[in-house]
Amino acid sequence: MKNTYDLIIVGGGPAGLAAAIAAYDCGVTDILILEREDRPGGILNQCIHNGFGLTRFKESLTGPEYAGRFIAEAAKRNIPLSAGTTVLSISPKKEVTAINDRDGIFTVQAKAVILAMGCRERSRGALNIPGTRPAGIYSAGTAQKYVNCKGYLPGKDVVILGSGDIGLIMARRMTLEGAKVHAVCEIMPYSSGLRRNIEQCLHDFNIPLYLNHTITKIEGKDRVTGVVVSEVDEQKKPIAGTEMHFDCDTVLFSVGLIPENELTQEAGIALSPRTKGAIVRQNRETSVHGIFACGNVLQVHDLVDFVSEESEIAGKYAAEYILKGEVPFDDIPVSHSGNINYVLPQVINRNIGGNVKFFFRVSNTFRNCVFRVRSGNKLLCEKKKRIAVPGEMETLLVPAAKIADVTEPIEITLEVQPNE
Amino acid sequence: MNRELTCIECPMGCLITVEGEDTLTVRGNRCPRGAIYAKNEVTCPRRVVTSTVRLQDGRMLPVKTNQPVRKSEMFAVIEKINALHPAAPVHCGDILLYNIDEDAALVACDNIE
Prior knowledge:
The complex is a heterodimer of chains A (420) and B (113).
Chain A: E1 4-10, H1 14-25, E2 31-34, E3 50-52, H2 54-57, E4 61-62, H3 63-76, E5 81-82, E6 86-90, E7 95-100, E8 104-115, E9 119-121, E10 137-139, H4 140-150, E11 157-161, H5 165-176, E12 180-186, H6 195-202, E13 209-211, E14 213-219, E15 226-231, E16 244-247, E17 250-253, E18 257-259, H7 262-266, E19 291-293, H8 304-324, E20 331-336, E21 340-344, E22 347-349, E23 356-362, E24 366-375, E25 378-388, E26 394-398, H9 400-404, E27 410-416
Parallel strand pairs in A: 1-2, 1-8, 2-5, 8-19, 10-17, 11-12, 11-17, 12-13, 20-27
Antiparallel strand pairs in A: 3-4, 6-7, 7-8, 9-18, 14-15, 15-16, 20-22, 21-23, 23-26, 24-25, 24-27
Helix pairs in contact in A: 1-3, 1-8, 4-5, 5-6
Chain B: E1 3-6, E2 15-19, E3 25-27, H1 32-43, E4 46-47, E5 50-54, E6 60-65, E7 69-70, H2 74-82, E8 95-101, E9 104-108
Antiparallel strand pairs in B: 1-2, 2-3, 4-7, 5-6, 6-9, 8-9
């Protein structure tokens, strides 16, 4: 292993691979990808269901197939990837310290770094659910890894808390493998999963979805024996008298994903309290010059196609940073109305040209609404939507010409249109 | 008779209405895939099945049907998948079983050397 690289990419999942390929194609060939698992592909390796790649490849691929295309492209370019390697720290000076069983602990110096570490699941501990601590409680993604990569079925009678996509996908997967999924409980009045997954993962198998419900007790000493599920009021407090009991041996949690940003924080990079990821400019550069972020470590995406797109932006601009040098910050902040949960990028650097695509999520279900991007009195972009839901990321493209003469802060708003 | 469907062809999840008995009219789909899905859904619903097979050496290989199979036959398809134990190496796109349901074949989704 060398001591210096032009570009070091932390993470060899879909984000890291797409960023590496884009940077290479922009003329930076001295790249090293550091990957914690024993092979590239990231979370896609355990996502054996289909539906990936419809935007990008116009066909419905499984996770491993989607990853396989990027792994092949990276291999064609001979981009080195160090598997089984865990990054321990990243300094603001772009020194990356990592460990593996071949090189021990080592530090490499990069000209630019791309953060592509992805996200992890929120656990039971984050929710404070009363009850015992028996075996049989898994995050949905852990269960997915057991079933799809290891070939073990973690239980026979299952209750799932949270209707995020992984929870829905696992409801179907466990059912197909012979388990009985008794219920999916969702504390919110809506599912955070994609509509198609409600349809094909729950409705197809007659699995009930209880909205406004949560697990209020887990029972069992050595192994889960059952759960109590209660309806919640508008303050998300359980309503007495609404308790339902389910016998089960397994509880899966699909209660959200958190960008994995410990390394980012240690590097002194500013994080957004909304996304829990780095605050970035439209080129995906963080508050530290030359450190970029993309994919789920930046914002939790629901489509890998968007991850690839975002990572190509990071890869391209990291290459420009390496080849042409630093672009000074001349920042315009981006804010949003209360019915939008977050917008990314959070900052526009006026020294960078080109179109800007904003990614954002709405805070509730809205019908017949219109999104607008404004800067002071200037309307930069407008888009109507028949239906917008929190589970599906929205995008708005502002053309380069409109961005170029922006001088005032940018705000993105959602307004509901009166019935026509 | 009108039927309201949520299209599963892509993450857009279009809300589709199918009207009529013999000649079906489809509204609300944003692409041709949606029209095909909706017509199938009210006549003979179909799904792509994805799963895994255990290779002879114990490793798991992700697999899928190369076209949608009849929804009513999904569990029969899974049974056929679980009975398969091919030997490595296997490559993405290799056909593991023809006619798993009607014309659909089972294909490998990953490279395992």
